[in-house]
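Tutorial sheet, problem 5. The two components below are modelled jointly, 401 residues in total.
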Amino acid sequence: QKTFVGDQVLRAHAKDNAQLDVLRELEAMKHLQVDFWRGPSRPNLPVDIRVPNAVLQQVKVFLESNSIDYSIMIEDVQELLDQEHQDIQSATLRER
Amino acid sequence: TGSFSYSTYHTIEEIYSWIDGLLLEYPKLVSRIDIGQSYEGRPIYALKFSTGGNKPAIWIDTGIHSREWITQATGVWTAKKIASSYGVDSSLTDILDNLDIILEIVTNPDGYAYTHSTNRMWRKTRSINAGSTCVGVDPNRNWNAGFGGPGSSSNPCSETYHGAHPHSEPEVYSVVDFILAHGNVKAMLSIHSYSQMLLFPYGYTNDLAPDHEELTELAKQTANALASLHGTQYTYGTTIATIYRADGTATDWAYNNGIKYSYTFELRDTGRYGFILPAEQIIPTAEETWLALMTVMEHVKNHPY
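Model answer (structure tokens):
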């Protein structure tokens, strides 16, 4: 299984269409391998981005330098996935 | 199916085995239709709930985007609910006495298997794209409704890659083929996550659908029914106005092919866990979604066309 240790999901809040365009630019930067869980659509809708740990600082700087507000929606994606896996294992044992 | 845990996530093998059990348990009501094969050769199954005869049908699909695990889990719970409610719940019994329900639980089998084996975050199909090292097509941008427009991507490496041509994906073509051959599908309910939204045509144009008012009113009633159980709030409206422009989607294709009641559900949540919704939320999500599905199905039954 691919792991996502240290990956975060950031929730960005674009104030206007110009900031939405900046987020679309980020989406187009394929080398960063960011994964848009909810893509840029309109200013009142948050944009959720899974950011690999390796480029986390780079993406945060990018957002900040473009004055785009963001919060951390998921601190560590792998922690949630580990919990999910553990829950599945427990349920499987209970079923048996 | 009684010892099966509905409050956890299952592999495709477990779900397919569970389907076998459901068929044995409800042989007079439930049958399995093999509608095709995935790119990697997995069978694609739809469950048909029917009391006999050739009735108009309601189509429900879950799991077209493989990482949206809450949807396949909701599909499993819903199948059991339909089967076990016939003859017990008068509303559902009345629906099944007048309509068939066809439910495809694992609409993207290769993607779903891949989320369990290799990459939990995989969304697309697993088809190889000629001339690219990137794999997969977004199966909800691959339908022949505004295909290839700006609400999708022509880049095979994009999560919204529309594919080489409409219905290029066997997972999509199988559904198209089945629905067109059936010829009497009255509703298409396509289940996704996340965002808590109820969307209807169109996604590829700002034009309003001819049935816009009725679709809006029914969406309002459906969202209210859903909220009545656990208070979960949904927003609703056309895809393009509510979320974003999306070209080549299943429900737009369905609507353009005469299926008036075409809705996309975006299940829980609104962004605490996203695609990694804890398993403890499976049953509450399925329960509230059931009320929404029942609202649409009752409306379809009461408004023949």
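Marking note: Residues 282-302 of chain B form the longest helix (21 residues). Full credit if you identified this.
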